[in-house]
């Protein structure tokens, strides 16, 4: 039988998992076995990268698209559609 503290942590984790807006993807590295070989996919500083030829030619690829679908709501919005942060000046 699990102890009560662990059960509370599991419930809290389940609650957090239902709120993806609490998370910000900063960086990630993935290895993917594609149809034509192993691809290395990374995300850092707001940019995706892939080792495939199509990415080098076009700046995106099916491997990145698949990673975005897999990560779902954790993938940041493009910067031009992100809401601007309001400046909160206590003296205003």
Walk me through what this model shows.
It comes from Thermogemmatispora aurantia. InterPro entries: Znf_SWIM. Keywords: Metal-binding, Zinc, Zinc-finger. One of its GO terms (molecular function) is zinc ion binding. By secondary structure, the protein is an alpha+beta fold. Helix content is 33%, strand content 22%. The chain has a domain at 24-73. The protein has helices at 4-17, 53-58, 62-71, and strands at residues 27-34, 37-44, 47-50.
- In total, the number of strands is 3
In the sheet with the most strands, the strands line up as: 1-2-3
Alpha carbon gyration radius? 19 Å
H/E element order: HEEEHH
Average the pLDDT over all residues and give the rounded result. Answer: 84
- What's the shape? elongated
Main structural class:
alpha+beta
Number of helical regions:
3
Percentage of helical residues? 25-40%
The residue ranges in which pLDDT falls below 50 over 5 or more consecutive positions are 80-92
Query: In percent, how much strand structure appears in the residues?
Result: 15-25%
Domain SWIM-type: 26-72
GO molecular function: zinc ion binding
InterPro entries: Znf_SWIM (IPR007527)
Protein name: SWIM-type domain-containing protein
